[in-house]
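Loading example: each entry is read as two labelled lines plus one structure line.
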Amino acid sequence: MQALVATDIRKAFGPLEVLRGISLKADKGDVIAIIGGSGSGKSTFLRCLNLLERPDAGSLWLNGLALDFGDGDRARTIAPATKAQLRRRLGMVFQSFNLWTHMTALDNVIAGPIHVLGQDRKAAREAGMELLGKVGLADKAAAHPAQLSGGQQQRVAIARALAMRPEALLFDEPTSALDPELVGEVLQVIKALAAEGRTMILVTHEMAFARDVATHVMYFLDGRVEEEGAPDRIFTDPRSERCRSFLRKFL
Amino acid sequence: MGGLDHLGFILDTVLHLSVGIPRTLVLAAVSLSIGFVLAVGVAVAVLAPARVPRKLAEGYVYVFRSSPLLVQIFLIYYGSGQFRGALEFLGLWHFFREAWFCAILALALNTGAYTAVLIAGGLRSVPWGQIEAAQAVGMSRYRVFASIAFPQALRHALPAYSNEVVLMIKATALASTITLLEITGLAKQLSAETYRPFEVFAAAGIIYIALNGMVAGGFGLIERALHRR
Protein backbone atom coordinates (compact mmCIF):
# COMPACT_ATOMS: atom_id res chain seq x y z
CA MET A 1 0.00 0.00 0.00
CA GLN A 2 1.48 3.31 -1.07
CA ALA A 3 2.15 5.82 1.69
CA LEU A 4 4.25 8.56 0.16
CA VAL A 5 4.83 9.29 -3.50
CA ALA A 6 6.93 12.08 -4.96
CA THR A 7 6.85 12.51 -8.73
CA ASP A 8 9.39 14.35 -10.86
CA ILE A 9 10.41 16.84 -8.17
CA ARG A 10 12.48 19.72 -9.55
CA LYS A 11 14.20 22.53 -7.71
CA ALA A 12 16.64 25.23 -8.74
CA PHE A 13 18.38 27.86 -6.63
CA GLY A 14 18.89 30.65 -9.12
CA PRO A 15 20.74 29.19 -12.09
CA LEU A 16 21.76 26.11 -10.08
CA GLU A 17 19.57 23.09 -10.77
CA VAL A 18 19.70 21.09 -7.55
CA LEU A 19 16.95 18.57 -8.33
CA ARG A 20 16.42 17.57 -11.95
CA GLY A 21 13.32 15.44 -11.65
CA ILE A 22 13.34 12.97 -8.79
CA SER A 23 10.61 10.43 -8.09
CA LEU A 24 10.17 8.26 -5.04
CA LYS A 25 7.55 5.71 -4.03
CA ALA A 26 7.34 4.52 -0.45
CA ASP A 27 4.91 1.78 0.54
CA LYS A 28 3.76 1.59 4.13
CA GLY A 29 6.62 0.22 6.23
CA ASP A 30 9.31 0.96 3.65
CA VAL A 31 12.64 2.31 4.83
CA ILE A 32 14.21 4.20 1.96
CA ALA A 33 17.85 5.19 2.36
CA ILE A 34 19.08 8.06 0.19
CA ILE A 35 22.84 8.13 -0.29
CA GLY A 36 25.16 10.25 -2.40
CA GLY A 37 27.94 12.79 -2.29
CA SER A 38 27.58 16.29 -0.91
CA GLY A 39 25.74 18.57 -3.31
CA SER A 40 23.92 15.67 -4.93
CA GLY A 41 20.55 17.05 -3.77
CA LYS A 42 19.72 14.50 -1.04
CA SER A 43 18.89 16.98 1.70
CA THR A 44 17.13 19.39 -0.65
CA PHE A 45 14.93 16.54 -1.87
CA LEU A 46 14.08 15.52 1.69
CA ARG A 47 13.27 19.15 2.54
CA CYS A 48 11.01 19.32 -0.53
CA LEU A 49 8.98 16.42 0.86
CA ASN A 50 7.68 18.55 3.75
CA LEU A 51 7.92 21.84 1.87
CA LEU A 52 10.73 23.39 3.87
CA GLU A 53 11.86 23.94 0.29
CA ARG A 54 9.19 24.75 -2.25
CA PRO A 55 9.62 22.47 -5.27
CA ASP A 56 9.53 24.27 -8.62
CA ALA A 57 7.75 21.40 -10.31
CA GLY A 58 6.41 17.92 -9.66
CA SER A 59 3.83 16.53 -7.29
CA LEU A 60 3.50 14.92 -3.88
CA TRP A 61 0.99 12.43 -2.54
CA LEU A 62 0.70 11.40 1.10
CA ASN A 63 -2.06 8.91 1.91
CA GLY A 64 -4.65 10.76 -0.13
CA LEU A 65 -3.31 14.30 0.29
CA ALA A 66 -2.20 15.40 -3.18
CA LEU A 67 -0.13 18.48 -3.98
CA ASP A 68 0.74 19.61 -7.46
CA PHE A 69 3.57 22.10 -7.80
CA GLY A 70 2.87 22.74 -11.46
CA ASP A 71 5.57 22.85 -14.06
CA GLY A 72 8.10 25.52 -13.21
CA ASP A 73 5.20 27.79 -12.25
CA ARG A 74 6.56 29.33 -9.09
CA ALA A 75 3.69 31.75 -8.77
CA ARG A 76 1.36 28.89 -7.84
CA THR A 77 1.03 29.10 -4.07
CA ILE A 78 0.31 26.32 -1.64
CA ALA A 79 -2.35 27.17 0.92
CA PRO A 80 -0.83 27.52 4.41
CA ALA A 81 -3.43 25.06 5.76
CA THR A 82 -2.42 22.43 3.18
CA LYS A 83 1.24 22.99 3.98
CA ALA A 84 0.58 22.63 7.71
CA GLN A 85 -1.46 19.48 7.15
CA LEU A 86 1.32 17.84 5.13
CA ARG A 87 3.91 18.82 7.71
CA ARG A 88 2.02 17.56 10.72
CA ARG A 89 1.54 14.21 8.99
CA LEU A 90 5.28 13.91 8.26
CA GLY A 91 7.86 13.78 11.06
CA MET A 92 11.21 15.46 10.43
CA VAL A 93 14.51 14.85 12.20
CA PHE A 94 17.30 17.32 11.38
CA GLN A 95 21.04 16.91 11.20
CA SER A 96 21.57 19.62 13.84
CA PHE A 97 18.67 18.44 16.09
CA ASN A 98 17.09 21.93 16.18
CA LEU A 99 15.56 21.42 19.60
CA TRP A 100 13.90 24.53 21.02
CA THR A 101 16.53 25.65 23.49
CA HIS A 102 14.19 27.55 25.83
CA MET A 103 12.11 24.44 26.57
CA THR A 104 12.73 21.27 28.53
CA ALA A 105 13.07 17.95 26.70
CA LEU A 106 9.46 17.08 27.58
CA ASP A 107 8.14 20.47 26.46
CA ASN A 108 9.93 20.00 23.13
CA VAL A 109 8.09 16.70 22.70
CA ILE A 110 4.62 17.96 23.68
CA ALA A 111 4.58 21.41 22.05
CA GLY A 112 3.42 20.02 18.70
CA PRO A 113 0.69 17.75 20.11
CA ILE A 114 -0.66 20.60 22.27
CA HIS A 115 -0.44 23.51 19.82
CA VAL A 116 -0.94 21.71 16.51
CA LEU A 117 -3.02 18.62 17.33
CA GLY A 118 -4.91 20.34 20.13
CA GLN A 119 -4.29 17.61 22.69
CA ASP A 120 -4.84 18.53 26.31
CA ARG A 121 -1.70 19.07 28.33
CA LYS A 122 -2.15 16.13 30.66
CA ALA A 123 -2.64 13.57 27.89
CA ALA A 124 0.23 15.10 25.91
CA ARG A 125 2.55 14.88 28.93
CA GLU A 126 1.70 11.23 29.50
CA ALA A 127 2.28 10.37 25.84
CA GLY A 128 5.44 12.51 25.84
CA MET A 129 6.89 10.74 28.88
CA GLU A 130 6.19 7.41 27.22
CA LEU A 131 8.05 8.53 24.08
CA LEU A 132 11.00 9.83 26.10
CA GLY A 133 11.10 6.42 27.79
CA LYS A 134 11.06 4.78 24.40
CA VAL A 135 14.19 6.69 23.32
CA GLY A 136 15.78 5.96 26.72
CA LEU A 137 15.53 9.48 28.16
CA ALA A 138 12.68 9.35 30.68
CA ASP A 139 15.09 10.66 33.33
CA LYS A 140 15.95 13.70 31.18
CA ALA A 141 12.39 15.03 30.78
CA ALA A 142 13.13 18.19 32.78
CA ALA A 143 16.55 18.84 31.22
CA HIS A 144 17.10 21.67 28.77
CA PRO A 145 18.84 20.92 25.45
CA ALA A 146 22.04 22.64 26.62
CA GLN A 147 22.32 20.03 29.37
CA LEU A 148 22.11 17.10 26.96
CA SER A 149 24.74 15.43 24.76
CA GLY A 150 24.30 15.52 21.00
CA GLY A 151 23.09 11.92 20.97
CA GLN A 152 20.55 12.68 23.69
CA GLN A 153 19.36 15.81 21.88
CA GLN A 154 18.84 13.84 18.69
CA ARG A 155 16.87 11.18 20.57
CA VAL A 156 14.65 13.91 22.05
CA ALA A 157 14.22 15.26 18.51
CA ILE A 158 13.11 11.80 17.36
CA ALA A 159 10.61 11.64 20.24
CA ARG A 160 9.39 15.11 19.22
CA ALA A 161 8.76 13.85 15.68
CA LEU A 162 7.03 10.67 16.92
CA ALA A 163 4.73 12.66 19.22
CA MET A 164 2.87 13.94 16.17
CA ARG A 165 2.02 10.31 15.23
CA PRO A 166 3.38 10.91 11.73
CA GLU A 167 2.49 8.74 8.76
CA ALA A 168 6.12 8.81 7.64
CA LEU A 169 9.39 9.98 9.16
CA LEU A 170 12.05 11.99 7.36
CA PHE A 171 15.63 11.85 8.65
CA ASP A 172 18.14 14.36 7.31
CA GLU A 173 21.60 12.93 8.10
CA PRO A 174 20.58 12.33 11.72
CA THR A 175 24.03 11.24 12.89
CA SER A 176 26.29 13.54 10.85
CA ALA A 177 26.63 16.17 13.60
CA LEU A 178 27.41 13.63 16.32
CA ASP A 179 30.69 12.57 17.91
CA PRO A 180 31.50 9.04 16.71
CA GLU A 181 30.85 7.46 20.10
CA LEU A 182 27.30 8.90 20.14
CA VAL A 183 26.26 7.67 16.69
CA GLY A 184 25.34 4.18 17.89
CA GLU A 185 22.67 5.23 20.39
CA VAL A 186 20.80 7.21 17.74
CA LEU A 187 21.06 4.52 15.06
CA GLN A 188 19.73 2.01 17.57
CA VAL A 189 16.59 4.11 18.09
CA ILE A 190 16.09 4.50 14.32
CA LYS A 191 16.56 0.78 13.84
CA ALA A 192 13.91 0.04 16.46
CA LEU A 193 11.50 2.35 14.60
CA ALA A 194 12.20 0.51 11.35
CA ALA A 195 11.45 -2.77 13.10
CA GLU A 196 8.04 -1.35 14.15
CA GLY A 197 7.18 -1.07 10.48
CA ARG A 198 7.28 2.71 10.28
CA THR A 199 7.60 4.35 6.88
CA MET A 200 10.88 6.23 6.82
CA ILE A 201 12.98 8.20 4.36
CA LEU A 202 16.55 8.46 5.57
CA VAL A 203 19.33 10.59 4.11
CA THR A 204 22.51 9.11 5.50
CA HIS A 205 26.25 8.57 5.20
CA GLU A 206 26.11 5.48 7.42
CA MET A 207 26.42 2.86 4.68
CA ALA A 208 26.51 -0.19 6.95
CA PHE A 209 23.40 1.07 8.69
CA ALA A 210 21.61 1.78 5.41
CA ARG A 211 22.39 -1.69 4.20
CA ASP A 212 21.15 -3.14 7.48
CA VAL A 213 17.79 -1.36 7.87
CA ALA A 214 16.77 -0.07 4.42
CA THR A 215 14.26 -1.85 2.21
CA HIS A 216 15.27 0.30 -0.75
CA VAL A 217 18.35 2.42 -1.52
CA MET A 218 18.56 5.44 -3.82
CA TYR A 219 21.92 6.82 -4.97
CA PHE A 220 21.72 10.51 -5.89
CA LEU A 221 24.13 12.16 -8.30
CA ASP A 222 23.88 15.76 -9.53
CA GLY A 223 20.21 16.08 -8.68
CA ARG A 224 19.19 12.81 -10.32
CA VAL A 225 18.66 9.27 -9.15
CA GLU A 226 21.71 7.60 -10.64
CA GLU A 227 20.83 4.17 -9.33
CA GLU A 228 18.31 2.57 -7.00
CA GLY A 229 17.30 -0.87 -5.85
CA ALA A 230 17.44 -3.39 -3.06
CA PRO A 231 20.25 -2.68 -0.58
CA ASP A 232 21.98 -6.03 -1.08
CA ARG A 233 22.28 -5.47 -4.78
CA ILE A 234 23.28 -1.78 -4.58
CA PHE A 235 25.96 -2.43 -2.01
CA THR A 236 27.39 -5.60 -3.58
CA ASP A 237 26.84 -5.09 -7.28
CA PRO A 238 26.10 -1.49 -8.30
CA ARG A 239 25.60 -1.10 -12.03
CA SER A 240 26.63 2.52 -12.22
CA GLU A 241 30.35 3.18 -12.26
CA ARG A 242 29.82 6.43 -10.29
CA CYS A 243 27.84 4.58 -7.61
CA ARG A 244 30.51 1.91 -7.44
CA SER A 245 33.31 4.44 -6.93
CA PHE A 246 31.19 6.37 -4.38
CA LEU A 247 30.61 3.24 -2.32
CA ARG A 248 34.25 2.24 -2.56
CA LYS A 249 35.16 5.31 -0.48
CA PHE A 250 33.17 3.90 2.42
CA LEU A 251 34.77 0.46 2.45
CA MET B 1 24.68 75.02 59.30
CA GLY B 2 26.37 71.78 60.36
CA GLY B 3 26.60 68.58 58.30
CA LEU B 4 24.01 66.95 60.50
CA ASP B 5 21.54 69.64 59.61
CA HIS B 6 22.05 68.97 55.89
CA LEU B 7 21.56 65.26 56.42
CA GLY B 8 18.45 65.72 58.53
CA PHE B 9 16.89 68.00 55.93
CA ILE B 10 17.75 65.58 53.12
CA LEU B 11 16.03 62.76 54.99
CA ASP B 12 12.96 64.89 55.62
CA THR B 13 12.93 65.84 51.97
CA VAL B 14 13.15 62.19 50.85
CA LEU B 15 9.96 61.57 52.83
CA HIS B 16 8.32 64.66 51.40
CA LEU B 17 9.24 63.75 47.81
CA SER B 18 8.20 60.13 48.25
CA VAL B 19 4.64 61.29 47.56
CA GLY B 20 5.86 61.55 43.97
CA ILE B 21 7.14 57.96 43.79
CA PRO B 22 3.80 56.39 42.79
CA ARG B 23 3.38 59.06 40.09
CA THR B 24 6.86 58.42 38.73
CA LEU B 25 6.25 54.67 38.78
CA VAL B 26 2.87 54.99 37.08
CA LEU B 27 4.37 57.16 34.33
CA ALA B 28 7.16 54.62 33.81
CA ALA B 29 5.03 51.46 34.10
CA VAL B 30 2.18 52.63 31.86
CA SER B 31 4.45 54.02 29.16
CA LEU B 32 6.74 50.97 29.30
CA SER B 33 3.72 48.65 28.94
CA ILE B 34 2.25 50.55 26.01
CA GLY B 35 5.69 50.98 24.48
CA PHE B 36 6.39 47.26 24.78
CA VAL B 37 3.22 46.21 22.97
CA LEU B 38 3.94 48.81 20.30
CA ALA B 39 7.54 47.57 20.06
CA VAL B 40 6.50 43.96 19.39
CA GLY B 41 4.43 45.07 16.42
CA VAL B 42 7.15 47.41 15.16
CA ALA B 43 9.84 44.71 15.53
CA VAL B 44 7.75 42.28 13.49
CA ALA B 45 7.24 44.98 10.85
CA VAL B 46 10.98 45.79 10.80
CA LEU B 47 11.69 42.13 9.98
CA ALA B 48 8.77 41.78 7.57
CA PRO B 49 9.55 40.94 3.95
CA ALA B 50 6.83 43.39 2.80
CA ARG B 51 8.41 46.73 1.95
CA VAL B 52 5.74 49.20 3.09
CA PRO B 53 5.34 48.07 6.73
CA ARG B 54 9.12 47.65 6.99
CA LYS B 55 9.85 51.19 5.80
CA LEU B 56 7.13 52.67 8.05
CA ALA B 57 8.54 50.83 11.08
CA GLU B 58 12.10 51.85 10.25
CA GLY B 59 10.99 55.47 9.84
CA TYR B 60 9.22 55.50 13.21
CA VAL B 61 12.28 54.03 14.96
CA TYR B 62 14.61 56.49 13.26
CA VAL B 63 12.52 59.57 14.10
CA PHE B 64 11.95 58.75 17.76
CA ARG B 65 15.50 57.63 18.44
CA SER B 66 17.04 60.64 16.72
CA SER B 67 15.11 63.45 18.40
CA PRO B 68 15.25 64.51 22.08
CA LEU B 69 12.51 63.13 24.30
CA LEU B 70 11.98 66.65 25.69
CA VAL B 71 11.22 67.91 22.19
CA GLN B 72 8.77 65.03 21.68
CA ILE B 73 7.01 65.91 24.96
CA PHE B 74 6.76 69.62 24.08
CA LEU B 75 5.61 68.82 20.56
CA ILE B 76 2.75 66.68 21.82
CA TYR B 77 1.76 68.80 24.84
CA TYR B 78 2.15 72.33 23.48
CA GLY B 79 1.85 71.49 19.79
CA SER B 80 -1.50 69.74 20.09
CA GLY B 81 -3.09 73.04 21.15
CA GLN B 82 -2.71 74.32 17.59
CA PHE B 83 -4.91 71.49 16.37
CA ARG B 84 -7.54 71.86 19.02
CA GLY B 85 -10.36 72.11 16.50
CA ALA B 86 -9.42 68.91 14.71
CA LEU B 87 -8.79 67.06 17.98
CA GLU B 88 -12.16 68.19 19.35
CA PHE B 89 -13.81 67.02 16.16
CA LEU B 90 -12.19 63.61 16.64
CA GLY B 91 -13.14 63.58 20.32
CA LEU B 92 -9.48 63.46 21.34
CA TRP B 93 -9.03 66.93 22.79
CA HIS B 94 -9.85 65.97 26.35
CA PHE B 95 -6.93 63.52 26.13
CA PHE B 96 -4.44 65.96 24.65
CA ARG B 97 -5.19 68.74 27.08
CA GLU B 98 -4.13 66.40 29.91
CA ALA B 99 -0.43 66.63 30.77
CA TRP B 100 -0.57 63.02 32.03
CA PHE B 101 -1.80 61.76 28.70
CA CYS B 102 0.79 63.74 26.74
CA ALA B 103 3.67 62.63 28.96
CA ILE B 104 2.68 58.96 28.74
CA LEU B 105 2.15 59.19 24.97
CA ALA B 106 5.59 60.73 24.42
CA LEU B 107 7.34 58.32 26.79
CA ALA B 108 5.56 55.31 25.25
CA LEU B 109 6.38 56.33 21.67
CA ASN B 110 9.98 56.91 22.69
CA THR B 111 10.55 53.65 24.55
CA GLY B 112 8.60 51.82 21.84
CA ALA B 113 11.24 52.82 19.29
CA TYR B 114 14.17 51.70 21.44
CA THR B 115 12.47 48.48 22.57
CA ALA B 116 11.55 47.60 18.98
CA VAL B 117 15.25 47.58 18.11
CA LEU B 118 15.98 45.28 21.06
CA ILE B 119 13.19 42.85 20.19
CA ALA B 120 14.10 42.82 16.49
CA GLY B 121 17.68 41.96 17.48
CA GLY B 122 16.39 39.19 19.73
CA LEU B 123 14.21 37.79 16.93
CA ARG B 124 17.16 37.86 14.52
CA SER B 125 19.22 35.86 17.03
CA VAL B 126 16.86 32.86 17.04
CA PRO B 127 18.57 30.07 15.07
CA TRP B 128 16.77 29.43 11.79
CA GLY B 129 16.88 25.68 12.38
CA GLN B 130 14.58 26.07 15.39
CA ILE B 131 12.08 27.99 13.27
CA GLU B 132 12.19 25.24 10.63
CA ALA B 133 11.69 22.58 13.31
CA ALA B 134 8.54 24.43 14.41
CA GLN B 135 7.30 24.68 10.82
CA ALA B 136 8.08 20.99 10.35
CA VAL B 137 5.60 19.96 13.07
CA GLY B 138 2.95 22.02 11.28
CA MET B 139 2.83 25.09 13.54
CA SER B 140 1.11 28.14 12.08
CA ARG B 141 3.09 31.34 11.60
CA TYR B 142 1.49 32.85 14.69
CA ARG B 143 2.30 29.76 16.75
CA VAL B 144 5.93 29.70 15.60
CA PHE B 145 6.21 33.33 16.68
CA ALA B 146 4.39 33.00 20.00
CA SER B 147 5.87 29.72 21.21
CA ILE B 148 9.32 29.58 19.63
CA ALA B 149 10.69 32.86 18.29
CA PHE B 150 9.31 35.45 20.72
CA PRO B 151 10.19 33.70 24.03
CA GLN B 152 13.77 33.30 22.84
CA ALA B 153 13.94 36.87 21.56
CA LEU B 154 12.85 38.08 25.01
CA ARG B 155 15.56 36.10 26.76
CA HIS B 156 18.11 37.53 24.37
CA ALA B 157 16.86 41.10 24.80
CA LEU B 158 16.37 40.98 28.57
CA PRO B 159 19.73 42.44 29.74
CA ALA B 160 19.45 45.38 27.35
CA TYR B 161 15.79 45.83 28.24
CA SER B 162 16.58 46.21 31.95
CA ASN B 163 18.78 49.12 30.90
CA GLU B 164 15.87 50.59 28.95
CA VAL B 165 13.63 50.38 32.03
CA VAL B 166 16.24 52.26 34.08
CA LEU B 167 16.50 54.92 31.37
CA MET B 168 12.73 55.29 31.32
CA ILE B 169 12.43 55.75 35.07
CA LYS B 170 14.95 58.56 34.78
CA ALA B 171 13.19 59.96 31.70
CA THR B 172 9.94 60.42 33.63
CA ALA B 173 11.66 63.42 35.26
CA LEU B 174 11.04 65.30 32.00
CA ALA B 175 7.30 65.11 32.71
CA SER B 176 7.94 67.75 35.37
CA THR B 177 8.44 70.27 32.55
CA ILE B 178 4.76 69.98 31.63
CA THR B 179 3.38 70.55 35.13
CA LEU B 180 3.37 67.00 36.46
CA LEU B 181 4.33 66.78 40.12
CA GLU B 182 6.20 63.53 40.16
CA ILE B 183 9.49 63.26 42.07
CA THR B 184 11.37 65.90 40.10
CA GLY B 185 8.34 68.20 39.83
CA LEU B 186 7.87 68.12 43.60
CA ALA B 187 11.59 68.75 44.05
CA LYS B 188 11.49 71.86 41.86
CA GLN B 189 8.53 73.16 43.84
CA LEU B 190 10.18 72.45 47.19
CA SER B 191 13.48 73.91 46.10
CA ALA B 192 11.76 77.18 45.19
CA GLU B 193 9.99 77.26 48.54
CA THR B 194 12.98 76.41 50.74
CA TYR B 195 15.90 77.91 48.78
CA ARG B 196 17.81 74.71 49.59
CA PRO B 197 18.25 73.19 46.10
CA PHE B 198 21.28 71.13 47.09
CA GLU B 199 19.50 69.04 49.69
CA VAL B 200 16.26 68.87 47.71
CA PHE B 201 17.81 67.61 44.47
CA ALA B 202 20.17 65.31 46.38
CA ALA B 203 17.09 63.77 47.98
CA ALA B 204 15.44 63.40 44.55
CA GLY B 205 18.60 61.76 43.19
CA ILE B 206 18.67 59.33 46.12
CA ILE B 207 15.10 58.24 45.40
CA TYR B 208 15.85 57.58 41.70
CA ILE B 209 18.99 55.65 42.64
CA ALA B 210 17.01 53.49 45.08
CA LEU B 211 14.23 52.83 42.56
CA ASN B 212 16.68 51.86 39.85
CA GLY B 213 18.61 49.68 42.28
CA MET B 214 15.41 47.71 42.79
CA VAL B 215 14.80 47.49 39.04
CA ALA B 216 18.34 46.22 38.41
CA GLY B 217 17.99 43.73 41.26
CA GLY B 218 14.67 42.46 39.92
CA PHE B 219 16.03 41.94 36.41
CA GLY B 220 19.13 40.28 37.88
CA LEU B 221 16.91 37.73 39.62
CA ILE B 222 14.96 37.01 36.44
CA GLU B 223 18.15 36.61 34.40
CA ARG B 224 19.66 34.24 36.93
CA ALA B 225 16.47 32.18 37.08
CA LEU B 226 16.48 31.85 33.28
CA HIS B 227 20.20 31.13 33.15
CA ARG B 228 20.00 28.33 35.67
CA ARG B 229 17.89 26.29 33.26
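The mean pLDDT of chain B is 94.
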